[in-house]
Amino acid sequence: EVQLVQSGADVKKPGESLRISCKGSGYSFTNYWITWVRQMPGKGLEWMGTIDPSDSYINYSPSFQGHVTISADKSITTAYLQWSSLKASDTAIYYCARLKDSRSYYCAFDIWGQGTMVTVSS
Amino acid sequence: EIVLTQSPGSLSLSPGERATLSCRASQSVSSSYLAWYQQKPGQAPRLLIYGASSRATGIPDRFSGSGSGTDFTLTISRLGPEDFAVYYCQQSGRSPTFGGGTRVEIK
Q1: Which residue of A has its CA nearest to B3?
Q2: A1 Cβ contact partners less than 8 Å away, ≥ 6 residues apart
Q3: Do A109 and B90 count as a contact with CB atoms less than 8 A apart?
């Protein structure tokens, strides 16, 4: 079964760092790019950035560049999203998703992780 | 950035009725790059339609997509109880964007 499994919910204080993960299985991890999507409480979906796990080339949304870091470790078929200094406004659900077509930006997101709830509160 | 505007913001319908959801783009989008997703409370989005009109694996044929250029439509021919959810359109590419969503509620 093709799936993406994300790490569990986390509660952090402002200023703390965090890394959440997304493990792919059931397919060739390096042949399909992974994207991250934010959903703030009660709001819609926002694209954050896309990574090619084969060489870790990353295409960031201008809205998120400099605020988060996307990475991947192809040896363990896992992608990551990390923050060095969290803010209360980072409170959201974060989803990873797979781009449907091999090695292309021009396609839908066909497989989604279950989401990771990140709460940032003092 | 391509802005996608979905209308209506919410739709109140009864099971068995037809739902018609609209997605308008701020500039022309290739039909190949337009997708629709369904999201239920507490769940991740699920891909319904890609390439404007192709159903994803396992999606029932009561869901259909159409459109081109700047105007796209998702139609649910007969609403089942499991279809009450929020629906998002999305355009893909180097800078993908999502519409704001349409909530389909039980009347």
Answers
A1: A46
A2: A25, A26
A3: yes
Which residue numbers in chain B have pLDDT < 50?
none
CB-based contact B100 A100, cutoff 8 Å? no
Phi, psi (rounded to 5 degrees) for A102: -60, 120
Give CA A75 to chain center in angstroms.
17
Tokens of B58: 């396992």
SS3 A55: coil
Give pLDDT tens digits for A24-33: 999 999 999 9
Specify the DSSP class assigned to residue A32.
S
Q: Which residues of B touch A2 (CB under 8 A)?
A: none
- Alpha carbon distance B2, B14 (integer Å): 33
Cα B24 to Cα A42: distance, rounded to the nearest angstrom: 22
Q: Does A106 touch chain B (CB under 8 A)?
A: yes
Beta-strand runs (E) in chain A: 3-6, 10-12, 18-25, 34-39, 45-52, 57-60, 69-73, 78-83, 92-99, 109-112, 116-120
Rounded CA-CA distance B107/B42 in Å is 21
User: Residue A106: what pLDDT?
Assistant: 83
Mean of pLDDT values over A78-96: 98
Instruction: Note whether B50 and B29 are within 8 A (CB).
Output: no
A6 near B CB under 8 A: no
